[in-house]
Structure formats: C-alpha cells, structure tokens
Amino acid sequence: MEAAKPPEGSTLQEVGSGKKLISAAFPKRALPDCITCSGGSEQSSRNNSVAAKGRRYGHGVTASYGEMCYHDNSLVSASLEALIQHLVPTVDYYPDRSYVFTFLLSSRLFLHPYELMTRVCHLCVEQQRSGDALLDKIRFREVAPKLVQLLTEWTETFPYDFRDERMMRCLNDMTQHVARGDEVSYSWRAMQQMTQRLIKRLSALGQYEEAVSALSAVAMERPASLKGRQAAGQRGDVMSACDDPFVLAQQLTHIELDRLSFIGPEEFIQTFAMKDPLENHKGFFRKRKTSNLEAYINWFNRLSYLVATEICMPVKKKQRARIIEFFIDVAQECFNIGNFNSLMAIITGMNMSPVARLRKTWSKVNTDKFEILEHQMDPSSNFTNYRTALRGATQRSETAHSSQEKIVIPFFSLLIKDIYFLNEGCASKLTNGHINFEKLWELAKQVSEFLVWRQVICPFDRDRRILQYLVTTPVFTEDELHLASYESEGPENNMEKDSRRSLRSSLLHRENRS
Fold first, then answer.
1. DSSP 3-state of 90
2. Which residues form the N-terminal Ras-GEF domain (predicted)?
3. In angstroms, rounded to a whole number, what is the distance separating the alpha carbons of residues 327 and 321?
4. Whole-model pTM over 0.85
C-alpha cells in the first residue's frame, strides 16, 4: 500500500527550525542541473483521492494519512514501511530534499543502507509493472530521471555508503536497468556520470586516509630521549617554524577544514547506531564506519599534546613563558577566525597538569587574554558562553562579505556530545511502533548545520613547512610530559618526588626495551 500524504497544496513546515536549516545545507542550485521534475516538492501528492477531498488542517491540528502522522503540516511519525515508500519517486512525485536527507541519514538506525537501497529500487521498478513489457519499458523510462535524481542525492551526500560493494553492485544493476529502457537516454548518461563522480570521491577518500595514516606513523616517532632535553630542543620549537600567531592560526584552520571535509554526515549517526549483524562482511566493514570522525578527534588530541610538549620542552623558564604567550596569541586568532576547535585544543593543552603546575613559568606570563579565552570556552551551564559565540560566528557566516567571515569550525567533541544526547534523550520508536520522525528532523538539523560549515573553502595561503610541522612533529606522551615538567620545575612535595622517580624508571625501562 502506498503511503498517504498531506493534501496537495499544503506545505510541510519544519519542526523547530529543522527543515529550514536542512534546506540551507542543500541549496536548490546544488541539484543536478540536468534532471528536472514536475513534482519536485513535498506537496506533490501520491494519493489523488486524498488530495481531491481538499482537507486542510491548521495550527495545532494532528492528522493521520494511512501510516503517516502529521502535526501542523509536518511529518511527525510513520511506520518504517511508509517512510521507505515515501522515499520512492514516481512519474508525478519526488520527495522533498529535506526529507530525503533526513531519512537517508537516520534510516541506518533501523536498517542497513544496502537494505534500504535495495527496497527503494525494487519498489520503484515494481510500481511501473503492468504486465505489458513494452508499456513497462515506457513507464520506467518516464520515472527514470527521478530515480537518477534520488540516487544522485544519495551518492553525493552519503558517498561512503558505497564503500560497501553490495551498494555498488545495486547501483550498477540500476544503471543496467536504465540502459535497458533506453541506452541513449539522458538518464543512462546521468547514471554513468554519477558513478564516475562517486568513484572519484571514494578514491580521494582512500588517498586521504592513507595520507593521514602515513602522517600519524611519522608523528608516532618518539622525541629525543628526555635524558638529553637540550639535544631534544635542537629539533626546534614551534616558533622556529612560525613566529606569527595569525599565520599559525591560519594553518591550523587549513588542517581543521581539510579534515572536516572528509567526515561523512552519516558518521555522526553511526557512532550510536545498532551493531550491524553483518559486521564481518567484506568491503563496507573493512574500514571502520566512523574512521574519519575518529581521525578528527585524534587531531584535536594531538594538537593539545603538541601545545603541552612545546611548553614543557624548553629548559629555560623564559623560553617556556614565551611559548605560552605565543600560544595564547594563537588561540586568540583562532577565536577571531571562528576556529573554535583549535582554540579549545590549545586551551586544553595549556590546562594539562604538566603545564598547569609550572607556577614559576606562569608567573612570568600575562594571563589576562588567556583568562578571557577560558571564560569563552567555560564548560559551566553547558558551555553557554561558547554557544553564544558560536551563534555569533554562524550569523556572521550567513551574512559574510568575505570568504574568511564564512569560517565556522565548532568545538567538535561538544557537537558529537549534543548529537549523542539528542539520540539518547528521545525514543526512536513510539509505543505504536511508528518511527519518531520529530527526532529524525532534529538529528538532521544538527548534522546539516555541520555540512554548511564543512563546505567552506579555506581562504588562507598554505605554508607547507608549517603544516608539516604541525602534523608530523613528535609529541610527548602523558608520562613524558609529566617527567619533562618535573625536569623544568622540580617536585614540590613527596608525592611529586615519588612520581618523578617512578616515571624515570619506567621511561628508562621502555627506552632500553626499544
């Protein structure tokens, strides 16, 4: 049974501001130029009998159509089968783009992308069957452009789903099916072009992952032995690579935006999606489904440890104080740019206990600016100060007159936490077995906001030498940081003395073993 829809002429409104934000992430100009649809909005109705009745429902009114429930003209719940059917295009119907994004994003909470794609393609083909082969061919040829549009949106927004060889096989099957309808049709050519773009994107992803892995291997090389910290210092410090805080903040922004661009929107949902029973299936699960998201979190941790290493490395107190002041200035420039992730990583590094305990060093530092930055990123009241600053940066981005003003890089761990608690705090299914689509709208709202930020191109010039330093310079482990801190400013009590003695013994043992 086809899923019923609200009356023709009605408009689906967002839950909160969810759909408006989702639409902003997918402007109409991003639609494939070559594919046109006469019924390209949510108000195109599948069910003509419902539309003919012309029923309206106003503010505060809930209405059910088949297995789909609407409130104030907005979809709030439905059965999984109805949602799948709602995604399937017909000759005179194409689902709203915000619905396509929302359901493709969160459907993986309930079924595997491969299963969804198989069912959608099957329904699209079966709906054209009449028992007459020639008529079936004509009818499929008519619906093919809209099926191609749906698959194009899927491959362009969630390309990593197609690392699963079953997804690629299904895509190839549909290409052949379109070709059987008309080998010289535009739809067939569009399918070929779509597949080529997808392969190019997946190839770029593979190259990126290899590059990140290679850089991580270089960065894992241990710094020079702590027994000779002066020799370790000969590798140079961050200020020998770049002594301009604004330039360093620009290069950090390059790294942030580069790595953000490879995070798939589905990775946010897959961090808490059900464990797939086919997890050992080759292809899709060979690489972890959240690997790029995890790599980005690892970058945050690396930057924090790099800051702490740079501060703890110098033997002289004056040099340590100079580096602290330099990183405060870098953090300030990150805030001005809208790079909140690097800002928080720097603050985190400077608040690590091996750095925080260097009281003699800190006494030589003017901490006024640092205290202001800490206040901006204060976790009190659920990071209310940061959230205010983020809203300001977002508003600036929306009205930007320059590419630099468009930059918004959120504190990423908090973004993931927000999405996690949104998922945990709302039921995915209602007591009647329906999918809670209000929750799915809100998840999509959060993720689509990230997609808007992710697509910004960094406007600053690249400095490869500085970038190389930031991503490959070896950093101390937590134990090495503590020992370096004790070497800089000796233990102040018996507990710290015991800790230093234990760390020396442990690290010396590791060096001898290696």
1. strand
2. 71-199
3. 10
4. no
